[in-house]
Design a protein that fits this description.
Layout lengths: L3 E4 L4 E4 L7 E10 L6 H19 L3 E9 L3 H10 L3 H17 L16 H13 L3 E3 L5 E3 L15 H5 L16 E6 L14 E3 L3 H10 L4 E7 L3 H16 L4 E7 L2 E4 L5 E3 L10 H7 L2 H9 L7 E2 L2 H27 L8 H16 L4 H20 L5 H18 L11 H19 L3 H13 L2 E4 L6 E4 L1
Parallel strand pairs: 3-4, 3-9, 9-10, 11-13
Antiparallel strand pairs: 1-2, 5-6, 6-7, 7-8, 11-12, 14-15
Helix pairs in contact: 1-13, 2-3, 4-6, 6-7, 9-10, 10-12, 10-13, 11-12, 11-13, 14-15
The structure holds one RNA strand.
RNA sequence: GUCGAGAUAACACAGCGGCUAUGUGUCGGACUGCAGAUCCGAAUACGGGAGUUCAACCCUCCCUCUCGACUCCA
């Protein structure tokens, strides 16, 4: 099977064909760095982290770019409140961002451009837009984009200019030729950070930084552009217009949008998690209660495009579900160490699982179905271990397989898990001792050993064919 | 109002025009000194109404409800 991606542009699943064979250029809209990130951001970050991981797993050379918006009204306002420079505020939140995504097990993108450091490219882009007749200047030094000049404005969000006109929520700005026009450059206002430009001092409009960064860091056209589905209009729509005005070609071949994370509001309704509704959960806080594996599992346990309602009980459920996979993983580790010798033909089973996993991921990154294949493998290997037919070699082979699969999902323990031979020797003594105590029915002492090991982070499980130990 | 997404068993979340979904939870069994893990088995389902079809949870139409975008937003 080949990778199929749902493309917002066409509203269909399409076969993925990169521009350059075996290479993928992808760009995902990042965050405005004026506050801590919340779980809604986390979802988007984890989704596209997983997309890039899967593409690499398939063998593509991926160049992944995510931006930081560090020039923005909200940043300026908050910096003013705190009496610090806007760029100091954003720099602090960028650092915090990296700490937060680390607690989510997210691999870093290749490049993280910032608006403030991309100013030459942004200004060049605006200049090109104006030179080609798609932009015009206003008396206050702003530059607006001439939407009417692009016949298919609304293509991504599947609306027409007529639809948009009738929305009745238009900005009546006398500087604009048309209410639908949007600012690519904003003339300076008192008290704002500003950069020199051919149109006087000012700063970029919201959408232009993405167009400019993509063009500079990745080129005129990229393979995949991603972001939350709340960005489809107007942000991505406008990005497309800006870029196409300059390059004459498409900006991205595949547009991917993740569904919103929702949560309950005060009145008991579900609503999108957002700052303005004050119904958000910060990553920082959630990460105190749940580990990164659980958080990733929770998000990957549903399709990226579906809406998802966040709740702590759901997180706890995810934790229990993931525990099953972890138990299996630990048991395999124990089996690889202490299990029977000899052959165990696990290859067909692993092959079957691989096929199911790849088919699921190829189908528009269906992580949920992919995870189901892992539960199937867990049940079968549990059975083999229960029957004592799983051997050390078979367990090792299965573990290698799981590690490879987990390079995509990032939900299994990454502790490399190699317990020393010394520890194994000591455990074996303790297990023998307990065996003797149990024969003599001195259960209090046997339990004491087991409990103390439990406190130390090791689980001891009695079974018909002898005790097994593993990490908790 | 315009555009888009969605309604699946107790819960969460997949899927397919006909074949046991998956996980958590619940119940029963195996194992067992206890604990835990594991295995085997069971029950509960496709919002409502029409239609297409030999056959629909899956396609079409209508209805109801939910969410998102149209304003800063992952």
């Amino acid at each position: 099977m080949t990778l199929m991606i749902h493309n917002t542009l066409t509203n269909r699943k399409e076969k993925f064909v990169p521009i350059v064979p075996d290479e993928v250029k992808m760009y995902v809209c990042g965050v405005t760095v004026y506050d801590d990130i919340h779980m809604g951001h986390a979802r988007s970050i984890i989704v596209f982290d997983t997309v890039s991981r899967y593409l690499r797993y398939l063998g593509y050379k991926v160049t992944f770019v995510t931006n930081f918006t560090d020039v923005d009204d909200k940043i300026i306002n908050r910096a003013n409140e705190r009496g610090i420079a806007p760029l100091d505020l954003s720099a602090a939140y960028i650092e915090k961002y990296f700490r937060d995504i680390e607690s989510l097990g997210v691999r870093r993108a290749d490049i993280y451009p910032q608006a403030s450091t991309s100013m030459p490219y942004i200004i060049q882009m605006v200049k090109d837009i104006v030179d080609r007749g798609y932009g015009y200047t206003a008396p206050d030094g702003s530059v607006y984009f001439r939407v009417r000049k692009m016949a298919d404005y609304g293509r991504l969000s599947h609306r027409t200019i007529k639809d948009l006109r009738s929305s009745g929520r238009l900005d009546e700005n006398p500087d604009k030729e048309d209410p639908l026009d949007f600012a690519v450059w904003k003339g300076v206002k008192p008290g704002e950070v500003a950069w020199d430009s051919p149109w006087g001092k000012g700063r970029p409009g919201w959408h232009i930084e993405c167009s400019a960064m993509i063009r500079h860091y990745l080129g005129d056209v990229i393979d995949i552009h991603g972001g939350g589905n709340d960005l489809i209009f107007p942000h991505h729509e406008n990005e497309i217009m800006q870029t196409e005005a300059v390059t004459g070609g498409p900006l991205a071949h595949y547009w991917m949008h993740n569904g919103m994370l929702e949560t309950k509001t005060a009145d008991g309704q579900t609503a999108k998690m957002s700052k303005s509704l004050k119904n958000f959960f910060k990553v920082e806080d959630v990460a105190k209660k749940f580990d990164k594996y659980t958080i990733r599992f929770y998000f990957l346990n549903t399709h990226y495009s579906s809406p998802l309602a966040y709740g702590e009980d759901n997180m706890a459920e995810a934790q229990n579900a993931l525990k099953r996979l972890w138990n299996n993983y630990r048991d395999l580790q124990a089996c690889a160490r202490d299990g029977p010798l000899g052959d165990c033909p696990v290859a067909p089973l692993l092959e079957k699982t691989r096929t199911a996993f790849n088919d699921a991921m190829d189908d528009d990154f269906n992580t949920r179905a992919a995870i189901e294949s892992l539960f199937g493998l867990a049940r079968e290997t549990n059975r083999l271990m229960g029957e004592r037919t799983m051997t050390r070699d078979g367990a090792l082979e299965t573990l290698d397989f799981l590690k490879d699969i987990d390079s995509v999902l990032g939900i299994l323990p990454d502790d490399a898990g190699r317990d020393s031979d010394d520890l194994a020797a000591v455990m074996s003594i303790l297990i023998d001792l307990r065996k003797e105590l149990r024969v003599r029915k001195q259960y209090d002492l046997a339990d004491l050993i087991r409990n103390r090991l439990g406190e130390a982070g090791y689980v001891l499980e009695d079974a018909a064919d002898g005790a097994k130990w593993k990490k908790a």
